[in-house]
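S1.2 Input.
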Amino acid sequence: MPQLPATPYPAEVRARLDADAKEVLARYPGSRSALLPLLHLVQSEEGYVSRTGVAFCAETLDLTTAEVTAVATFYSMYRRRPSGDYQVGVCTNTLCAVMGGDAIFDTLKDHLGVGNNETTEDGKVTLEHIECNAACDFAPVVMVNWEFFDNQTPESATQLVDDLIAGRTVEPTRGAPICSYKDTARILAGFPDERPGAVEATGGAGPASLVGLKLAKGEALPKARVVSPRAGQPQDAQPHDPSPSEHLSSHAHPSPDHRPSTSPSGTPNTSQQTSASDPEHPAGPAAEEGE
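S1.3 Output.
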């Protein structure tokens, strides 16, 4: 059914937003480029992008509400319904999930009594799963209003949301101190964070990221540690050049009868066993490429 026009902002709110929008527009040579920060600006007013906020952005930038809505619904950082003071995002992408992200998310859903993208009755916490927080070397990671809480457990995450609801001070692992979601949205709109020490607060990359950086620069690393997926095999080994039988690509096929390949000495090459020849360590169905 057709909807009535969006309710306009009260006069004092509209005057304040107009002044802020003018400052945002001055940063861009083309007004249309200011849409993303303007969406953050209206989100800082109501805690989400309402139909009133969409209409304000459209009028300010001479766009249609359909054009503004297309952008607001594309980016997940824009909320489309009222949200809590604290947006708690749990990474459930591959690495965080296997390190405990799924368990953290399930625990918080039960503890808070909400589902994905839902808000607690007191309006304090909105819980959502996030595909990636770009902090894999700190997995599993939880974010509160886009600030990092690294190496979390179900217990620590539960304590975190309890502290947020109770109004206790929580400190992110790295980054600026926690502020409300509306204040965060205003900062994302490009307005300065005037809290003492907030701009200086930061955090560096984790050890795994730094190792990758050193490798990229060709810097020497400590003795390599080779970790085998097979129980009972040596855990430490010197790096060596692979023999022809070892140097197989990821697309190499097993022999038709699925027996393990052999080394030049005739001994089984167990490192190249397939799921069919090693039932205790299945890796999925063995099939020829293209099947």
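S1.4 Remarks. The longest strand covers residues 86-91.
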